């Protein structure tokens, strides 16, 4: 019977583990591209709908709010139905509002579709779930972080590509209004294509698909109970809620920056839409290697058998993120702002990877519930940051406060330390 992969062979798609690895990051990439496709076009959309700063803040909050609920739900759904069916369903249903936003005719309709698009952000939980059940403990941190990082890069690519895509359609002779709408149809179509690819070329775990395995009486790690039972088991574990906070302080900040970066560079530093898109895109593109670096570093630090080295690394990374965020908030010109953004972005992405390098070890009986709750924490952090900016009305002041809060929340990583018994059991399993 097939078992979890003990190595990552990037150039191979001959095994179910590597097919799942490559297709799950590709699906995640498409979902994140779709999720953040509106953000770099907001300066144009703002002008067309005559949006106020408060309305823009509402749109940014809506973009991440519904993801909280969907992430909580989709983790246990992975336990119950398997990641293959869960991802296929999310891609197909998520494509509807992504295409629908291109037909918005008012602030209210745009807000509604932007809210619904947030469901695509739950793709992250399925990606982490799928790689967690496919890879063995000694490489699972790297696998989780690499898949998430490459998928996360979809947000960065969207920042740079969407303004160019809109410009290309305008060059064909259409109006700017029709141009941004045509550009937003593209990610929706990509989601539909990806849904069919994912369903036909992946399987739930190394042994096969959950439905057939359960029918044959096979015990499935991570998907044994599923549904509400998985959620309750995860919710009863205090480490889940500590990492819920830390993930809100790293991934939540990442989402927040994705949503405000382009318009911040345009309004504060007077960059053009294309320049702002490239600057904002560089933050997201760090995910191509930085998140994987965080997971790889976590695996290396824990290679000696001490699971607690993973949480110590997370603590250090979050301190670096908080310091970098303060530097970004007080940058005096665009060049310094971009440099500071890349500095704190490196720590932010690495902290995200390091967080999900810990997730597979919290409770193997409820992997979906654990991944879902902690993943939702990222969106809670983004929503909280959005409300903070809406309340303060000043982006720089918001960034400064967030930098301090991130540094304080790093303490939650230390509080999530594992018992000596768990550390010893993990060391034996990894050996």
From TrEMBL:
GO molecular function per UniProt: nitrate transmembrane transporter activity
Family: Belongs to the major facilitator superfamily. Nitrate/nitrite porter (TC 2.A.1.8) family.
Coiled-coil region: none
Membrane-crossing residue ranges in chain numbering: 20-42, 54-74, 86-104, 110-127, 139-162, 182-201, 240-266, 272-290, 311-329, 335-359, 366-387, 399-416
Gene source species: Duganella sacchari
Domain Major facilitator superfamily (MFS) profile, chain residue ranges per copy: 20-427
Keywords carried by this UniProt record: Membrane, Nitrate assimilation, Transmembrane, Transmembrane helix
Name listed for the protein in its UniProt record: MFS transporter, NNP family, nitrate/nitrite transporter
InterPro entries in UniProt: MFS (IPR011701), MFS_dom (IPR020846), MFS_trans_sf (IPR036259), NO3_transporter (IPR044772)
A GO cellular-component term linked to this record: membrane
Localisation per UniProt entry: Membrane
Lipoprotein recorded as keyword: no
GO BP annotations listed: nitrate assimilation
Membrane topology: Multi-pass membrane protein
SUPFAM superfamilies linked to this entry: MFS general substrate transporter
């Amino acid at each position: 019977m097939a078992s979890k992969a003990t190595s990552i062979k990037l150039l191979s798609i001959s095994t179910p583990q590597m097919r799942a690895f490559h297709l799950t990051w590709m699906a995640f990439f498409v979902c994140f591209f779709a999720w953040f496709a509106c953000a770099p076009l907001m300066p144009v959309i703002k002008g067309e709908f005559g949006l106020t700063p408060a309305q823009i803040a509402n749109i940014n909050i809506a973009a991440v709010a519904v993801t909280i609920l969907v992430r909580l739900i989709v983790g246990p759904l992975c336990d119950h139905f398997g990641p293959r069916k869960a991802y296929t369903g999310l891609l197909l249903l998520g494509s509807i509002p992504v295409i629908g936003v291109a037909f918005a005719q008012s602030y209210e309709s745009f807000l509604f579709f932007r809210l619904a698009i947030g469901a695509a952000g739950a793709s992250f939980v399925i990606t982490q779930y799928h790689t967690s059940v496919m890879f063995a403990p000694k490489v699972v941190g790297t696998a989780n972080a690499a898949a998430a990082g490459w998928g996360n890069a979809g947000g960065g690519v969207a920042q740079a590509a969407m303004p160019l895509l809109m410009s290309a359609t305008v060059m064909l002779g259409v109006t700017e209004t029709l141009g941004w709408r045509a550009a937003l149809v593209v990610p929706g179509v990509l989601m539909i294509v990806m849904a069919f690819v994912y369903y036909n070329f992946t399987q739930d775990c190394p042994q096969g698909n959950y439905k057939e395995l359960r029918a044959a009486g096979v015990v499935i790690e991570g998907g044994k109970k599923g549904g509400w039972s998985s959620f309750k088991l995860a919710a009863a574990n205090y480490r889940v809620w500590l990492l819920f906070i830390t993930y809100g302080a790293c991934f939540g900040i990442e989402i927040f920056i994705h949503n405000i970066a382009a318009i911040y560079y345009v309004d504060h530093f007077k960059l053009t839409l294309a320049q702002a898109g490239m600057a904002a895109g560089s933050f997201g593109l760090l995910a191509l290697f930085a998140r994987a670096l965080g997971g790889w570093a976590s695996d290396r630090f824990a290679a000696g058998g001490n699971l607690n080295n993973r949480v110590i690394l997370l603590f250090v990374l979050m301190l670096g993120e908080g310091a970098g965020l303060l530097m970004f908030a007080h940058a005096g010109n665009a060049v310094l702002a971009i440099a500071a953004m890349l500095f704190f972005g490196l720590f932010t992405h690495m902290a995200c990877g390091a967080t999900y390098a810990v997730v597979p070890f919290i409770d193997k009986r409820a992997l979906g519930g654990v991944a879902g709750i902690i993943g939702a924490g990222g969106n809670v952090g983004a929503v909280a940051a959005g409300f903070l900016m809406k309340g303060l009305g000043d982006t720089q002041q918001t960034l400064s406060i967030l930098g301090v809060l991130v540094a304080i929340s790093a303490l939650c990583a230390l509080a999530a330390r594992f018992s000596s018994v768990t550390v010893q059991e993990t060391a034996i399993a990894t050996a």
